[in-house]
Write a structure and sequence with these properties.
The complex is a heterodimer of chains A (about 375) and B (about 350).
Chain A lengths: L1 H12 L27 H4 L3 H13 L5 H7 L4 E2 L8 E7 L4 H14 L3 E7 L2 H9 L5 E4 L5 H11 L2 E17 L7 E2 H8 L13 H4 L11 E4 L5 H10 L10 E3 L3 H10 L3 E6 L7 E3 L2 E2 L11 H5 L6 E10 L7 H10 L2 H9 L3 E2 L16 E2 L1
Parallel strand pairs in A: 1-14, 2-3, 2-4, 6-11, 7-8, 7-9
Antiparallel strand pairs in A: 4-12, 5-9, 5-10, 5-12, 5-13
Chain B lengths: L7 H17 L7 H21 L8 H8 L4 H27 L5 H22 L4 H21 L2 H6 L3 H19 L5 H17 L11 H17 L10 H40 L1 H74 L1
Helix pairs in contact in B: 1-2, 4-5, 4-6, 4-8, 5-6, 5-11, 6-8, 6-10, 9-10
Classes of the chains: A alpha/beta (about 375), B mainly alpha (about 350).
């Protein structure tokens, strides 16, 4: 009965299409522009205006711009080693870097089928703790490490700490796409998110206190944040409320960064903290300014690359080794793959900004004729 | 379109929480008035606490609570079924708001198709054999629907301002299903689930029919391992030995069939509507509708034309009457002239005869 119902439903909905339930290919699929989803194109043929707007939506969903493409092409290609790699590697840390590393690991395991790369997320802090405790081979940290953290890891492991930026990103303050707020200053962020709000006389609790002309009037903003171990949230706290506690008033802790943005897409009164890579059409990253009277900076590829956006950050892979000459082969090879065209292609595809090709660490070696050998 | 969704009681709760926060983390901006209020509030809470005479927790109680908090398979089955019903209600509420009074057949058709596929998929999952798989499948479908319809702005593109009902209800479904999942999975397992879905979406973002994607596809081998771990007690679900599991499965199979048969009539009319909308957008129907439309337009013109004819006839009558009047006048004038002429001529001849005689 169930099967019959489903078949009838499918037959009714899409005479020309079948549900795509095939297993995903092992090889990385090309970035697909969003389709018309549940609405097969044939179904839209009757409504020209609707079909046109859907087509515009498909075209606007192309996140991989020529600007990013040019950056990716700066990186060397990757040629697999003649002797295949084997073994296992565990990377723990950033939620923001999760999809990026997961995609890279899938492609890497296509090149080296005998290598098992396990990606666990839970926040940058979790990665640092795991690396300190020897529970992982690399930590993914979506922010700069503090000098204290580097010292702590070094002390705990007795080894040198290596920090390799593999992509660039930013922490963003998201609101609903229909929210017309022009921007937020550091002080406003403090007044909104901090319990002690040391930068403002009174806490900011209503939309018209944040933006006098807001159509939301005196409604309360609902604050959506990732969990406290998140590097994105830590960076935001360090920027606008160092040493202060994040408010619990109207705050919702979400299971992941995508869920934060999803809340901003769905609720008009929502405001959330998430990564640049998690941006979506129905959520808007609010331009930020370092102080009242200073210009608002929108998080764009250019602003992230030149560091003018206040919350721009590197996305790092961190590991320990005795010294640069004794870096484990597995780690070195994985980093080369990540800092090759394939890896940076994944970075752009997952919504991040590729690294600066001139900043490839020397200990990874030198590409020969543009190819990692 | 903005909507004021936060209830007033939230405003009161917010003020109380603010006072408590200020007390716990006093900053330089704390006013003495706020402090006094906070102390008064704390006193009230303490008095209320003493008056209730609640006993302090005994040693070992925490462990017992933790053990008791482990969800059983029967509870999970109930939660999964309840979620399917909740999803049905959310979709029904959203779709009614979108379809009612909407003259756009395409919009109605797509909404009807979405609710039909979504709800049938959700009940299909709820009646599938394994309880843990049910939950993760529901979680995957609802999360992907949020990615697909809410985040990308597809809902707004199709339904415009009407989409807000659907968008908010899909988000609520996501919140609900993740809350249920938090009773079964540990934080790490939830993070793994989130990563699996996000990774799959980043590679297959253009996939159609998200309602029919299942966890086995999203998480592949890793997902199977996760489900096995949960079954064996590696999460917050009560572990069960395989023999007992089979007996329970047999019992649950009947319940599931009953559950499904009771709910099928609820949305069977959606299938009829789907057929109706399909017929409406078919090219032949469109042609027929266009012909009917033309015919009705023609019929609508008839009274106007009749009015024009009436006006023309009335005009012609007036013209004719005017013409007749003018002719009559002329004839009358001619007649009078002839008569007068005749009279004058006869008078002249009579006078000439008299003169001659």
């Amino acid at each position: 009965m169930i099967a019959a119902t489903i078949l009838i439903s499918l037959a009714l909905m899409a005479p020309d299409s079948k549900p795509d339930t095939t297993a995903q290919p092992a090889t990385p699929a090309a970035p697909t522009a969003p389709g018309t989803g549940l609405v097969p194109k044939a179904l839209l043929s009757g409504g020209d205006a609707l079909a046109k707007s859907m087509q515009e939506l498909v075209e606007s969903g192309d996140v991989y711009s020529e600007e990013l493409s040019a950056m990716v092409e700066q990186f060397p290609s990757y040629a697999p080693r003649p002797v295949p790699m084997t073994g296992a590697m565990r990377i723990v840390g950033s939620d923001t870097m999760g999809p990026l590393l997961s995609n890279i690991s899938i492609s890497y395991q296509v090149v080296y089928p005998d290598v098992k790369v396990n990606i666990d997320q839970g926040g940058s802090l979790k990665g640092i703790v795991a690396l300190k405790g020897g529970l992982c081979d690399m930590a993914s940290v979506a922010r700069d490490l503090t000098a204290q953290e580097v010292t702590d890891i070094s002390k705990a492991t007795g080894k040198q700490v290596f920090v390799v930026p593999v992509a660039r990103g930013a922490a963003c303050v998201y609101v609903n796409a229909d929210n017309p707020i022009a921007g937020m200053t550091k002080e406003q962020c403090n007044g909104l998110f901090s319990i002690t709000h040391t930068m403002t006389e009174v806490p900011i609790m209503r939309w018209n206190e944040l933006d006098a002309t807001s159509p939301l009037g005196n409604t309360f903003p609902s604050l959506y944040v990732p969990h406290l171990t998140s590097g994105t949230l830590q960076l935001f706290i360090e920027w606008c409320m160092p040493g202060e506690q994040i408010t619990t008033i109207g705050r919702y802790t979400e299971p992941g960064p995508s869920s934060v943005v999803n809340a901003c897409c769905a609720y008009p009164t929502a405001i959330g903290i998430s990564g640049y890579a998690n941006r979506q059409a129905r959520a808007r990253a609010v331009p930020l300014s370092i102080s009242a009277g200073q210009p608002f900076i929108t998080p764009t590829v250019a602003a992230i690359c030149d560091g003018t956006y206040p919350l721009a950050r590197p996305l790092n892979l961190v590991f320990v080794a005795t010294d640069a000459q004794h870096i484990p082969d597995g780690i070195r090879e994985f980093l080369r793959f990540t800092l090759a065209e394939d890896g940076q292609d994944m970075a752009a595809m997952t919504g991040n900004v590729p690294m600066d090709a001139s900043r490839i660490p020397e200990f990874l070696g030198t590409p020969v004729k543009g190819v990692w050998q | 379109m903005f909507r004021f969704s936060i209830p007033e009681k939230f405003s009161q709760a917010r003020s109380v929480v603010y006072l408590i926060e200020m007390m716990a983390f006093p900053g330089p901006q704390v006013q003495s008035r706020a402090k006094s209020c906070a102390i008064a509030l704390l006193s009230v809470l303490l008095i209320a606490g003493c008056a209730s005479g609640s006993a302090r927790s005994k040693p070992g109680e925490a462990a017992r609570i933790l053990r008791d908090q482990r969800i059983t398979r029967a509870q999970l089955e109930e939660a999964s079924n309840a979620f399917a019903d909740r999803y049905f209600s959310l979709m029904l509420a959203a779709s009614e708001r979108i379809i009612r009074g909407n003259n756009d057949i395409q919009q109605c058709r797509i909404m009807n198709g979405l609710r039909l596929l979504g709800v049938s998929s959700m009940y299909d999952i709820a009646t599938s054999p394994d309880t843990v798989t049910q939950l993760v499948d529901q979680l995957v479908v609802v999360t992907l629907q949020n990615y697909f319809w809410v985040d990308t702005g597809r809902a707004q593109t199709i339904w415009g301002s009407r989409a807000q009902y659907l968008v908010e209800n899909l988000r609520r479904a996501r919140e609900d299903v993740w809350t249920i999942a938090a009773r079964v999975f540990t934080d790490e397992q939830l993070e793994e689930l989130d990563l699996s879905i996000a990774t799959w979406w980043s590679r297959r973002g253009g996939t159609e029919f998200v309602a029919y994607v299942r966890f086995s596809e999203v998480a592949s081998v890793k997902g199977e391992a996760l489900i096995e771990t949960i079954r064996d007690g590696g999460g917050l679900l009560e572990p069960l030995d395989r023999a007992t599991e089979q007996v329970q499965n047999a019992n649950l199979a009947l319940d599931r069939a009953f559950f499904w048969s009771k709910r099928l009539p609820l949305f069977i009319n959606w299938q009829a509507e789907a057929l109706w909308y399909d017929m409406l957008v078919m090219p032949d129907t469109q042609k027929l509708l266009a012909s009917v439309d033309l015919m009705s337009q023609a019929i609508a013109i008839v009274p106007e034309r009749m009015q024009m004819v009436n006006t023309t006839v009335a005009g012609a009558q007036d013209t004719a009457r005017d013409l007749v009047d003018r002719i009559f006048h002329r004839v009358l004038v001619v007649l009078i002239v002839v008569l007068v002429g005749t009279f004058v001529i006869m008078k002249w001849r009579v006078s000439r005869k008299e003169a001659a005689s």
